[in-house]
Design a protein that fits this description.
By secondary structure, the chain is of the alpha+beta class. The protein folds into three domains: about 1-80, FAD/NAD(P)-binding domain (3-Layer(bba) Sandwich), CATH 3.50.50.60; about 100-150, no CATH class; about 165-280, FAD/NAD-linked reductase, C-terminal dimerisation domain (Enolase-like, domain 1), CATH 3.30.390. Helix content is about 30%, strand content about 20%. The chain has helices spanning about 1-10, 30-45, 140-150, 180-185, 200-205, 235-245, 255, 265-280; strands at about 20, 50, 55-60, 70-75, 80, 165-170, 175-180, 190-195, 215-220, 225-230. The strands form three sheets. Strands 6-7-10-9-8 form a five-stranded antiparallel beta sheet, with helices on both faces. A hairpin with a 4-residue loop joins β4 (about 70-75) and β5 (about 80). The radius of gyration is 22 Å and the shape is flat. It starts with a helix and ends with a helix.
């Protein structure tokens, strides 16, 4: 995630970027269609993608002329650049916690296993945030902390929300909540989708964002909203509309019956809902 964010920021500033990732695709927890759009925009900004590639070595070369780096890949490819940025995600900051005396065992990256109330293997010890792993976002970490504090103090136990939104600050921005097509396909859940491009709305045309896309995923039979995936300007703000509807068990029909201000990007919800309903044989 962080690597993609830096890559797109530098590319937008005119820097020639090569992004190397051991995985075959970027951000594999995000709906693949949204990632396809991101990759298209990255390539449009002249980002070179080396996916499914592992770095074998990195060395400094040509030090007398300002310095460059040479990156050798296990596939035999060699990349030379002015700078190399190494991004490998987050590790838990546990060095000063003296976990050895607690009985809590971290993994190789300093992460702790917790239950849905964020209790570790030692019930009176709780852990939240980066130290418990994905999604490692400030917003989700704050909610995790609230749930853990309520449980520790025996306060009213509200069930953890299954609908955490994820904001990814690439250029263009991405935000998702709920299930992706890939997750639903794997789970054998029947679904349909509805899509709306920013360019279909007056606000999108005013902004000049022709790449923006909002995608709704809903249950084929009940019409319950199961996921929202957005790429484009303001995606991390726009996703909260869908998040609220999902949290209340709402259906895609809600957006058809709702009037949105004009011109706004929120109109994409109505356009996507019509697109989805029109795909049904009813």
């Amino acid at each position: 995630m962080i690597g993609c964010e830096y890559a797109t920021v530098f590319a937008a500033l005119g820097v020639r970027v090569t992004l190397i990732d051991k995985r075959e695709t970027l951000l594999d927890f995000v709906d693949q269609e949204i990632i396809d759009e991101l990759i298209h925009e990255m390539r449009r900004n002249r980002v070179t993608l080396r996916l499914g590639e592992a770095v074998q070595s990195v060395e400094s070369i040509d030090g007398a002329n300002g310095g460059r780096v040479q990156i050798s890949l296990e596939s035999g490819k060699v990349i030379q650049a002015k700078k190399a940025l190494y991004s490998i995600g987050r590790t838990g900051a546990i060095d000063t916690l003296n976990l050895d005396v607690t009985g809590v065992e971290p993994d190789s990256r300093g992460r702790l296993v917790v239950n849905e109330r964020y209790q570790t293997s030692v019930p009176h010890i709780y852990a939240v945030g980066d130290v418990v792993g994905f999604p490692s976002l400030a917003s989700t970490s704050m909610e995790q902390g609230r749930i853990a504090a309520c449980d520790a103090l025996a306060l009213t136990k509200t069930p953890p929300s299954p609908h955490f939104p994820y904001g990814i600050y690439t250029i263009p921005e991405i935000s998702v909540v709920g299930k992706s097509e890939e997750e639903l396909t794997k789970a054998g859940i029947p679904y349909e989708i509805g899509k709306a491009s920013y360019r279909e709305t007056a606000r999108g045309q005013i902004m000049g964002d022709g790449a923006g896309l909002l995608k709704l995923i809903f249950h084929l039979e009940t019409h319950e909203l199961l996921g929202v995936c957005i790429i484009g300007e303001g995606a991390s703000e726009l996703v909260h509309i869908g998040q609220a509807v999902m949290a209340l068990g709402g259906k895609v029909d809600f957006f058809i019956d709702t009037v949105f201000n004009y011109p706004t990007l929120a109109e994409c919800y109505k356009t996507a809902a019509f697109d989805g309903i029109n795909r049904l044989a009813v």
